[in-house]
Every structure is written in structure tokens, then in C-alpha cells.
Amino acid sequence: MDRRRSDDRARARHGVPVVTYTPAEMMTVAAARALANDDICFVGIGLPSAACNLARLTHAPRLRLLYESGTLDTKPRVLPLSIGDGELCETALCTVPVVEMFQYWLQGGRVTVGFLGGAQVDRYGNLNSTVVGAYRRPKVRLPGSGGATEIATHCHRIFIVMRHGVRAFVETLDFLTSMGHGRTGTERRALGVRTEGPALIVTDLCTMRPHPDTREFEVASLHPGVTAADVRERTAWAVRFRGDAGETPPPRGEELEALRDLQDRTRRAHGGSHVDE
Amino acid sequence: MAEFLTLREAVARYVKAGDRVALEGFTHLIPFAAGHEIIRQAVTDLTLIRMTPDLIYDQMIGCGCAAKLVFSWGGNPGVGSLHRLRDAVERDWPRPLQVEEHSHAAMAHAYAAGAAGMPCAILRAYVGSDLPGVNPNIRTVTCPFTGEPLAAVPALRMETTIIHAQKADRDGNVLISGIVGVQKEAVLAAEHAVVTVEEVVDDLGVTSPNAVVLPSWSLDAIAVVPGGARPSYAHGYYRRDNAFYTEWDAIARDRDRFRRWIDAEVMTAPAHATAYPS
Predict the structure, then answer these.
(1) Closest approach of chain B CAs to the CA of A256, in angstroms?
(2) Which residues 191-230 of chain B have a CB within 8 Å of chain A?
(3) How far apart are CA B153 and CA B135, in angstroms?
(4) Is ipTM beyond 0.85?
(5) Count of CB atoms within 10 A of residue B102's CB?
(6) Are A200 and A206 in contact (CB under 8 A)?
(7) Domains by residue range for chain B, with CATH
(8) What structural domains and CATH numbers belong to chain A?
(9) Using one digit for the tens of pLDDT, what is the confidence trace for B171-199?
């Protein structure tokens, strides 16, 4: 971080445009771009929250953000540490009970995009946020579903944002918390779920989209400087690449500026505590 | 009718060993002071119910208060793990912890079913998830009108629900504002309800006819506990202590450091535990 900033300053002094950015920034910017101005988005904490608010601060000012604590159309000035920070309620159009949030607004089919992450994802966009290892005696007890299990089936479509690594992009999930396209890519439709499911995965290396027939996620674009070998090395399944896979457009200056301002404000607001980038 | 008690009296009267207890508050208005009083009174074998166990149940689990946890998201929001919860699940410390795990949607619906006096909640949920395979309380019913299979979970019922609220009037009516979570449902689903409040006022100052007000006759006890939600927050009174939530990670990671923190910060009863409203 500090080195990046000093590189920026050095370049700026020499009249060179500031174009350096971290893989995490590329990931957040690429995720933000996937959101449209008319989307109504159910936001998870961490990476999704950064991406959704960046979209709102850049190309999608009318994007509606909902957090599971019941805040509708919220416009936080800083990223919340939790899904129930006061900032979300203070900047919301209104705040509804949690039961109503899940019953009417989510289950009722009002939300166009759900933004999710997890500890593990498989090639069909199924997510694990429950345990690593066996359920009854886990190696790592993860937080669990929270809203994710139903966000995954009730939102019109799902975007996933996760850091790329072999322990995260797995051949077989230890536990399926939230269904993507199902264990073999067919279960979602077979179970009668009418929403589209995972349509995009954004990582710090690439973007991935599901194959229209098999629903297997394939690399749709590589971030600048990333090779196909990098993605293969950090994906536990034999990952495929779309024939037309190109390069993700790098972050533009205004995107980086908006993201860094947001994160600086957030860091100051939370007393210097760590915030996901 | 709600009776004004000290926090110590309220907990002694309404939280007994083996009870099912919900301390609710969705990130906001978490009744930390009441949880600490339960720790001081060394109440054991509780079934602790909460959508997000948060730091308060991490502390109670680490102190051995709980035999079972019913929950739907057990992390430290924005920070990471609840290490005392993990130590109990992964290594049985300080005692084995039985877990009943749901999703948020199902738990919220289950509180509402409890408040409504229904035996179960029905919702469209858990489709394609492994959760029904590890929780026998997640079952399926068929809609008698459409034939659609739907998820059913038992209504949440508990001996006692404890919440924190901004204020009570002198008749014992309570106002909650901000993120109202599942507090109303949790109160109405319980046999007894205890509320800690920031202050007692002559007039609740309600400006909207749709405010969330719990009538005195829906509550059992009120204890005046200023700051009773810290390090969570009370909308209009004080902010969430996000820095403490971050610090908790290191405190809870280590058993000895955790015990020292409990001894220093919880075991000596603060004045509000024994004070009556003025």
C-alpha cells in the first residue's frame, strides 16, 4: 500500500499519469462495473460492499443498495464494518424489520442482484461459508449462511467476488451453503428455481462467466498482467477459458480515485481498523 | 405489566439454568450489559438463541454459560471469526456446544412464527443447500394449494428474551428506533421479556404513529442501564465501537487473554447492575 502510494507520487511528480493499482483494486473496480444504474442490489459485507458503493459513486448513481439489517436505498458515506452499522440506517430511505426484509423484499422477488462471497466456490458457482472439514468436527468453523442461502435463490441474478486461490476455488466444496447452478450444474433448474443464479465471478486475477449450456464457470477476461497459467495455478479445478477471453480494461483514474477516497474515509471512520479492499 | 428492576434482579428472576434465552439486537442495540450479568451470575446450560451470536455470545460461550446455540451467522462482522465460538465447536472448550444452524431468512421467520403463536414457519428457503442435511429441524411441507414444496422450521419459543432499547416511559412502555432487527418478534415469542434501556423519560417523544413501541403489558421487567449496548450501539445515543470489535479478535483468540479480559471487564459488577431508575 505505502509503496504503491509513493510510486504514484513519484510518477505524478514526473508528469506520468497515475495508472498503478493493486490486484485488489482491479477486483473491486471490475465487480463494481457489473452493476447497472437500475439495479436493486442486496449487499454482503466486505468485498461486495466496497464494489457496490464504488458503483454508486461512479457510473451507477441511482443503484439501490439494500443491506440485510433492513436498510433500503442506503447511501453510506463510509463502508460499514458490519451490515448493521448506524451509517447504513442514517443514510437509508427507510429501515424495515429484518423479518420484512427477508419475507417481502427478498423472498418477494424485488431484488435484481445479490452480491456474495464465501470461503469456497466451485466451478458451478456454488458457495461454502459454513465449514472447512467435516460439519460435526470442522477444521475451521466459518460464520455460516447469514442471508446468503436465500439471497442465492431469490435475487434475479448473483455476482460473486472472491480472492483467487486453490483453497478457495475448489474441485469439491466441503459444504454447500448457497446453491449456484448446483453440484453438477443442473440442480438449480431441476429444483424449479426460476432465478438466473450466478452470472459472474470476479477475482483478483480474472472475471469468469458460466458456459450457457453446462453452467461451468470459464475465464471471460484476464486482468492486465495476469496470465492463463496464473489462473490455472490458483484454481483447483481444470479451469477453461472462453475462446474470446481478452483483457479486463484496467481501472480508470476516476474509478481508482473514488475507491481510494472511499477507503480512506472508511479507515478514518473506523479508527484505523482493517477494512477489506 | 413491566416492573422496574435492577439488572441483577431482572436476570436472577428471569434467567435460570437450562433456559432457552434470546438476547436479540441485529448488530444494533445488542444487550451486552445483560449478557455480562448472566456471566456474573454464572447461569449455565442455557440454550442461547440469536441470529448473529456476535461478541456477546462469544463471551458467554467462552464463560461456559451455553449448552446449545441456535444461530444463523456466527462471525465478528467485518473482522473475521468468533474465536470462543470456534474453540467450543472445534475443540469443546470450555465445554461441548450443541449447534442448531439456520439461515437468516429462516430464523427471522421462526421468530415471527413464535410471536404469532404458530407451531412453525413456512418459507421458500434452503433450496439446494446442505443445511437441511445437518439440521433435522429444517423440513419440507407441501403447499396444499399449489403443491410447491416449501421449507418449514419450528417456531422459536424461549423462556426469556432480553433486548436493549433507547427509552422507557414511567409506565414501562418502551421505544425502539433505528435498525429494529427482530426485537419485537423475539419479545413476543418469549414467555418473559426483559428490556434494558438507556433512560426513563416522562414522554417517549414519539413523532410517528408507526414507531416501534412495546407496550408495558407485553414486557415483564425493565432495567435502566445507560450504555448497556456497548460496544454495540444505540441509535441517537452512541456509536458502534468498531475499533473494539476489531480488537476483540486478538483478545478472544487466546484462552488466557480472554479469561483475563472477562475477569477485568465483566466480573466486577458496574454500578448500573444494582441501580434503580431515579
Answers:
(1) 22
(2) none
(3) 10
(4) yes
(5) 27
(6) no
(7) 3-99+157-268 (3.40.1080.10), 104-154 (no CATH)
(8) 23-269 (3.40.1080.10)
(9) 999 999 999 999 999 999 999 999 999 99
